[in-house]
Amino acid sequence: MTKLLILLVLVLGILAIAQLARVYELTSRMRGKREEDISPADNRLNANLMWVFLITYFGFFLWLLIRYSDKMLPIAASEQGESTDWLLNFNWVILFIPFVITNVLLFTFAAKYVHNKNRRAFWQPHNNKLELIWTVIPAAVLAVIIIYGLRTWNTITSPASPDAIQVELYAKQFDWTARYPGADGVLGASDFRLINGTNPLGIVTPESVAGRLLELQEEIAGIDDMLANDVLPDSKRDELTDQVERLRRHRSRVINLRTVMELDIKENGNASIYMAGADDIVTKDFYLPVKQEARLLIRSRDVIHSAYIPHMRVQMNAVPGMTTSMKMVPTITTDSMRTIPEVVNKVNDINAIRQGQGKEAYVFDYLLLCNKICGASHYNMQMTLTVTSAAEYEAWYKEAQKKPFQATDAEAVPEPAAAPSVDDNAVPADAQAAVRPN
Amino acid sequence: MGATTTAEAGHHGHDAHHHHEESFISKWIFSQDHKMIGKQFLVTAIFMAWVAVIMSIIFRLQLAWPGEGFAFTNFFLGEKWAPGGILDPNMYLALVTIHGTIMVFFVLTGGLSGTFANLLIPLQVGARDMASGFINMLSYWFFFLSSMVMLSSLFVEGGPASAGWTIYPPLSALPQTIPGSGAGMTLWLVSMTLFIASSLMGGLNYVVTILNLRTKGMKMTRMPLTMWAIFITAVLGVLSFPVLLSAALLLLMDRVMGTSFYLSEIHVAGEALDNVGGSPILFQHLFWFLGHPEVYIVLLPALGITSEIISTNARKPIFGYRAMIGSILAIGFLSFIVWGHHMFITGMNPFLGSVFVFTTLLIAIPSAVKVFNYITTLWRGNIVFTPGMLFSIGLVATFIAGGLTGIILADSALDINVHDTYFVVAHFHIVMGMSAIFGMFAGIYHWFPKMYGKMMNTKLGYAHFWITFVCAFGVFFPMHFIGLAGAPRRYYSYSEFPMFDTVVDLNVLVTVFAIIGAMAQILFTYNFFYSIWRGPKAVQNPWRSNTLEWTTPVEHLHGNWPGPIPTVYRWPYDYSKPGKEDDFVPQTVPLEAGEEEH
Q1: How many contacts, defined by CB atoms under 8 Å, are there between A and B?
Q2: Radius of gyration from C-alpha coordinates of chain A
Q3: What is the Cα–Cα distance from B73 to B64, expressed in whole angstroms?
Q4: 0.80 cut: is pTM over it?
Q5: Is the CB of B281 inside 8 Å of chain A's CB atoms?
Q6: A407 touches chain B (CB under 8 A)
């Protein structure tokens, strides 16, 4: 309500200004002054305001720099981040110079060469030498910017070393899941058609294929039953017919996948990519060891997301239908980051604010957040990244290998009506027999 | 274009019609007079701009005070989208989407080009009207229809399009992923299709008129820079908008016909979709192939307007006329080969990224030349501070700030960390929300006497400029800092991330400036409409300008000049020429014996 009142006051204020302007207009009309004739007083006023603005502008900039420089992202915690931060500062230094020079000249000239009816403007249509100079200088400066920029870009985007730790980051509305290779060190193949409550990433293994086929078969049978027995309105019947047709198409594609898989397994045995997935670790924890290169493979289930880790200065989109990747070498563990004075101060500032609002205290953590509009909860799609020492990482990894993936409630995929639960003990041969007629 | 459609033939053709009465409908509604069409574009754009401004205030309130209820929000959105005045997260996304769409397309493309290309082309090149008055009229009415469809999308079930103004699929293709991708998105695509049709009809007309209907003596190298800017803008539009149309049509097919241009391997709402083999990245390539030239479609007319106004009011020839034309051409050409800088982190080949870094940073050279030339034009000038001049100087200042941060964003290695953060929001609002809008305001103040035969109130213009100038910096400058703190754009609220708590007060500052800045636009709107009816009557050439439009009578007539079309003898920037008594020499004054052109 108070805000509405403020609004009202502002509106009235503006109306008052409009009325004042009107009064001014009428008086100047009485004095025979034409609207397009800008009086010397008006010219001077605007010229002076140009000075005032220039000072205010730089003052505001300076105030923002002083007040907020320690509230920006803290020191970069990855090798990639260190190089881009250096590059950013290098660019700021270069860009600050033309920023100051051009603004000072612009506002100074505007203010200084204000209209004077006794003076005539300087006739100067062009000056080729001057123009050449200010084409060549920006070109030279940009060449430097481009060379340094591309050097950093090439280093950042060069292929990761083969020893890098591989982690898959899997995005969906509205959370992240991580997958680590098991003892074999290889991430197994995946296929979106195998996604279900227990296999949220659609990892392809002989078991998951068989289980999914069985599941599809039961869904199809369930709908067929409904279509055969129930008295259904036409619209519902059409809908179910469409649904069952789609399920049949999916089933036939999963069967194709199975064929490919079986051939590959026959050829490569346990080295097959389809055998690699069984021991993969699917987890909601995202751990990385410090000072080791990590290769992050990024996938999406539904729409485009973007994996952004601000403290590491790395980012890559998650695009459905393809796997993107980025590499990084974390340089500071979460624990040591929490003790860096800059971070400690920042956290204290934040907690002072949060205390005032009665919110729980904040502890520093690296975050992976989504940075591509992806839907209603885009603003809360995050995962904590924990960077630890190599030993702690090993311990965590061993522990994680033992834990089966727990689908949370949000994780559970809503199945169509009459979807049977998946029975892990079901005999795959039965399922195969049932779908063979296709 | 047959040989008969020369300026002379146009002149005879229209003379016969001068005196016959036009009906209300053919004069005010389905007018084929370019001046009226320009005004129609402008008034529609002002209305659309207000819709977009109100949207921005609603989501700025949410960003400054997340989770608080506002009567203002509730008043506009009702209980469905703002229960208790608290903005719904889906509606938040819808608002930022439609705000962006309206501002970029309806205000800064339709509004800016539509208004000034229509108003100025025939007047400044010396033509009776556009090459095709009828197609020109259709162009406006398609624009109008498109605006209505876009506005109607605000009222459908599920809300308007919500996938961001760039409508990246799959989010924009699948209603399962966001409610706004239902009927709202379909209407968005329909509206955009109409808009593109409008823009193509307009653009072809602008190009043809400038190329074929220039009056005697109006060589290309004697055209005002507004004409050059609008000409290149129209060429960019004609070449790039069809690509957006194809992108939109493919998206429409993906949505309704089950094709898979942009969709592949998607599992959503508990089921796997049939679509395989498409690529969401394809859409981005198509979109940005328009999207980047679009930035210059928005900016170039503003720069052209500024060139004209700065030269006129500094009473000094624009410095480096040929360099200015050269930089417009260079910017226009380069704008077609830089689109990949929007996609550095989509997983595209890093080498391709390097190429786009190179081409993008090249644009900084002609842009820098333009800034230096503006500043040099002011040097030792004799500056008259009309409101139009103030906005033009404002444009240069914002173009400097936005141009420099553009260099950061064009540098792919740096883009990684600021991509899709508030840093980007700051950058493109400073170049589009400030530079281009300032160019538009400058143009309105400067050519208002030509449009309506009345003067706008100068004092209100000053107040409008200074409040807007300060507030716009107050809004967009701090956003750089919010972005450098790592805050992503299009977040409904930052309360889930304590790491951003220390910049929340900046969000409050931004919102306060935004509200005051929006209020200042009331001054402008009041001044604009009041002056149309009650403003003091304008004289023929109020700014003592050289260009042809000021040789037409104050009262509009279909055909522009009562007598024959004037002949042009000189370039338009003979201000304070030595040896001349006045400090301006209109283009229609013949060169004296032995006088150098420039």
Answers
A1: 413
A2: 33
A3: 13
A4: yes
A5: yes
A6: no
Contact B89 A71 (CB under 8 A): no
Rounded-to-integer distance, Cα B426 and Cα B485, Å: 13
Q: How far apart are CA B511 and CA B59, in angstroms?
A: 9
**Nearest CA-CA partner of A282 in A423, A387, A174, A408:** A408
User: pLDDT, tens digit, for every residue of B353-376?
Assistant: 999 999 999 999 999 999 999 999
Rounded Cα gap, residues B432 and B425, in angstroms: 10
Is B365 close to A317, i.e. CB distance below 8 A?
no
B542 neighbors B483 (Cβ within 8 angstroms):
no
Query: Are B164 and A122 an interchain contact pair (Cβ–Cβ within 8 Å)?
Result: no
3-state helix, strand, coil in chain B (%, to 5): 65, 0, 30
Residue A209: CB partners within 8 Å, gap ≥ 6?
Answer: A194, A254, A257, A258, A261
Terminal-residue alpha carbon distance, chain A: 68
C-alpha–C-alpha distance, residues B553 and B549, integer Å = 9
Place of tokens 């301006």: B584
Helix, strand or coil for residue A330? strand
- Determine the topology of domain A166-171+282-407 in CATH: Immunoglobulin-like (2.60.40)
Residue B483 has pLDDT above 60, yes or no: yes
Contact call for A123 and B276, based on CB within 8 A: no
Which of A71, A372, A415 minimises the CB distance to B485?
A71
Assess contact for B315 and B384: CB atoms under 8 A. Answer: yes
Residues in Cβ contact with B133 at an 8 Å cutoff, skipping those fewer than 6 apart: B32, B33, B34
What was the pLDDT predicted at A20? 78
Degrees to nearest 5, angle at CA A45 with A40 and A50: 125
In a 3-state reduction of DSSP, which class is residue B79? helix
In this structure, are strands B267-268 and A314-318 parallel, antiparallel, or unpaired?
Answer: unpaired
The residue to which tokens 């593109």 are assigned: B196
Which residues of chain A are within 8 Å of residue B539 when distances are taken between CB atoms? 34, 36
Quick check: B379 and A109 CB within 8 A?
Answer: yes
- Put simply, whether A9 touches B (Cβ < 8 Å) is no
Per domain, the residue ranges of chain B are: 33-263+274-551
Fold classification of B33-263+274-551 is: Cytochrome C Oxidase; Chain A (1.20.210)
Q: Do A95 and B407 touch (CB under 8 A)?
A: yes
Q: pLDDT for B181-225, tens place per residue?
A: 999 999 999 999 999 999 999 999 999 999 999 999 999 999 999
**In chain A, residues 177-196 whose CB comes closer than 8 Å to chain B:** 191-193, 195
User: Cα–Cα distance between B110 and B104 in angstroms, integer?
Assistant: 9
With contacts defined as CB-CB under 8 Å, which chain A residues touch B280?
Answer: 304, 319-321
Half-sphere exposure of A23 (CA within 13 A, CB side): 6
Q: Side chain identity at B303, as an amino acid letter?
A: L
Cα separation, B445 vs B395, whole angstroms: 14
A101 touches chain B (CB under 8 A): no
Give the other-Cβ count within 10 Å of A58's Cβ: 15
Give the span between the Cα atoms of A188 and B46, in whole angstroms: 57
Q: Where are the domains of chain A?
A: 35-116, 166-171+282-407, 188-279+412-438
Separation between Cα atoms, residue B55 and residue B102, nearest integer Å: 10
Beta strands in A50-174, from DSSP E residues, in sequence order: 165-172
**Which among B280, B353, B383 has CB closest to A304?**
B280
Q: How far apart are CA B231 and CA B211, in angstroms?
A: 9
Q: Closest chain B residue to A32 measured between Cα atoms?
A: B536
Query: Are B236 and B332 a contacting pair, CB within 8 Å?
Result: yes
B501 contacts in A (CB within 8 Å)? 350, 353-354, 362
Q: In the predicted model, is pLDDT for residue B228 greater than 70? A: yes
Angle between helices A40-68 and B387-410 (to 10 degrees): 30
Query: Which strand (E) or helix (H) includes residue A294?
Result: strand A294-300
